[in-house]
């Protein structure tokens, strides 16, 4: 049996931190980050390839839209694949607490992220996060797509919650399949790996830097005055 772990979250909820802890504990598991992929097709192809070669795949994307979950079900729902939703944001989540917690995290990590620069492009980061929250569609186990998940696990959102959430996921998987997770790590191990994951530097590739610039241009289009100046400069150098 294969296991596909799918977060339901928004930006800054700690899903990647949880997955980095799990990857450290279980190196044979696959961790596929959407932010490392240049397109949806590349991301889904990596998930498919990982499911062919690993027993557990950590699908690292927010999946805040019902459409995302529908696509995951359509692509990966099979008799030998168990779909597990990790619900980091629920329908009854306090939106003010959610915003304060997640934005503080994005600010703290600064530019140490593949696509969102929390320091040098704080305004853009706010705009992107606001859009995600506005569009967020809560996990609904009675809906057609979400009902296709085999299990869902309610997780927490708060200070140091990623460490606790990693523990919750491990305990759930241990209960589900003791052979998959035979031992529960002690709290000191979880804390050490949590602190290690927070200190990891992300390698920002030239392609990801370009994606940042493109997002910035899309969110801050040039004014007519600026465009006029650009045209004048172009004419002068023509």
UniProtKB/TrEMBL annotation:
Q: Which GO biological process annotations does it have? A: tRNA splicing, via endonucleolytic cleavage and ligation
MF terms (GO), sorted A to Z: ATP binding; RNA ligase (ATP) activity
| Gene Ontology CC entries for this record | nucleus
Q: Which InterPro entries match?
A: P-loop_NTPase, tRNA_lig_kin_fungi
tRNA ligase kinase domain mapped to chain residues: 4-157
Stretch list, region Disordered: 196-238
Q: Which domain of life is it from?
A: Eukaryota
Tell me the protein's name.
tRNA ligase kinase domain-containing protein
